[in-house]
Amino acid sequence: MTEITNLPRSYVYLDHAATSPLRSEARDAMSKYGDVMYANPSGSHRFAREARQVIDEARDVVAEVIGCRPGEVIFTSGGTEGANAAVLGATRRTGGTAVCGSTEHHAVLHCVEHIEGTVVPVTSSGSVDPDVMRAVLTDLDNVAVVSVMAVNNETGAISDLERISHAVRRQAPDALFHTDAVQAACWIDLRTVWSHVDCLTLSAHKFGGPKGMGIMVLREGATLEPLILGGGQERDRRSGTHNVAGIVGTSIALSLTDQNRTSEVARLGKLRDQLIDGITSRIECATATLTPGTGTAGTAHVCLENLESESLLYLLDEARVCVSAASACASGAMEPSHVLAAMGVSRERIKGSLRFSLGHTTTESDVCAAIDATIVAAARLGAVTS
Amino acid sequence: MKVLLAMSGGVDSSAAALVLRDQGHDVVGVTMRLWGGESDTGCCSVSDVDDARRVAQQVGIDHLVFNFSEEFNEHVVEPYVASHVQGTTPNPCIECNRHLKFDKLIERGRALGFDAVATGHHARVIDVDGTLRLARGADAAKDQSYVVHMLSAEDLAYVMFPVGHMQKSDVRELATSGGLRTAAKPDSQDVCFIGTTIGRAGFLEPRLTFNAAIVVDSTGMQVGEVPAVELVTLGQRRGLGLGGGDKRYVVAVDVPLRRVVVGDEAELFISHTSIGTLSWPYSTDVSTISSREILVQGSAHGERSAGTLTVSGDTAVIAWSRPTRRISPGQTVVFYDSTDMVVLGGGIVTE
Q: Could you say which of A109, A250, A282, B260 has the lowest number of CB atoms within 10 Å?
């Protein structure tokens, strides 16, 4: 196996929207329970019952953070599974169609496109206009599911789920309203998000939990055709032996995220503003993608017009600053962003887009180093800087 | 030196990584994603990127993927389709080298602070009287100087061909001794963006309109027909609906008139060939090349024919020393010196 390099402090990690580092509390609990709780929680002996209790306790913790009933919490393998289970599960159950916004994560978008559903355009601010959603739904029959992300993964744009939910309830009252809340967990109170939807999906590694773990919250009474059939775990809604350690790590990370959210939003929001100001004020071709104050505290998305993201990323990486641009395809190549294209951002600006995403390990010195490195990189690629 | 190595996921660029590393260079491997569509062949499928990345890991160098699919579509795929509409036979690999590997990638390499860009081509950069020249690779059977002939003197000072001096068998041996998973990987043969299952016709069908054409002999009498004149190539013998009889070859393709002319093999041999889109990597050569006998290669591993060039601006005429089989319009010809070793320049056949 390859040698493991822990990111030393000399590296600046501003890619929390891709993965946020595992929280130490989650890691400690996972290693403790992973060692001891080896029994299959579906069994009947005492070790199995102990493991089962650990899962039930974790489920209570999650339910508390979401503001839902424990029975509404389903543990999954991650955000992609949750999105697939919601969109495909709903359409397979009723035979109806699916509707989503054009800037959804591919985990939702590809499902909706796969079943030839309807993709609703977004405004230049990067979110679905509730009135547009209302108009689209008025023209559609037999809608099984409407899926609108709570927070966009590239830009940090926040959806008006409250008004969109009104449109869904009025125009497609039988539809399941799902939100991909993967990028919301660190920034928005999930109780608020949950109050607007029937189904909410999360990915643990975006909030300092382990990879390979996710949560789906499905409102009591709503039913989906399960994607994964088997032993009938999770009340027949998601089969497969429980990942006990993963579930524990997930619940602990989510609970910490919830406890620290208000202070972290305030702390990181300032750093986010500092980052955007630093870059846009000192690099002539740089602009903030979202109107200031409209996105979450965790994302600083900028476009460096006519520069190339791939070159910027290389130079930033060389300067030990880890950030990203749009999503990568199967080969690892950067794909031109479908999100920015859907927002009507020009090709010249899309080409030079960069996403800095902040999280629980981010410090002011990270932000200062990132600003400096970005200015140096942009200048090397020919941008006018000051 | 800081070297940016283009890694296709094939054995040559894999071995090149080992050579460069062992020479003490600071190497970064890069795989260019060129074709955005589906293909089961060539150098841009995901499994080839996996191979390149794994080799880079084994060699101990960094590996990146650059997405050049937009440029590839503009400079390689679209012109490829347009050539068929005009009834000419393009060479997409040369256009890829011209516009992607040795334009876009060199530009990237310079912008990112690399001292050189390297590829796994079998070609060499040699010094002739103080000037850098492109020469054939050491392994005559694998020589690729034809497909990289457009490199300018400035480019040659920046590019490296780490396996150009090696025999292919030694390249494979090196990759094997390095435990690289690409050691026994077959050489790519086909156009990388055209899958073997759909083929050229299947690729072109949704991208252009095929027109049926009549096949006539030299007297103008119809002797057959073809469903797509765009797919007919000079010298072609099969698929013309001719039935049996004497061997007849396509000697002319007239796309606007939807007419294919067939004739004896002898009619394929001509005394002169016109060329355009000349590339002269070394500008001083033009006057000295004219009227001197040179060797001309008309396909990737084709035979050389002797001839003399008369250059006039961006066009030229080759007067063949003896009648030579016609080369399809659209194909590239590359000029070599009388030793058949050093590249002098090249161009694209117009007539």
A: A282
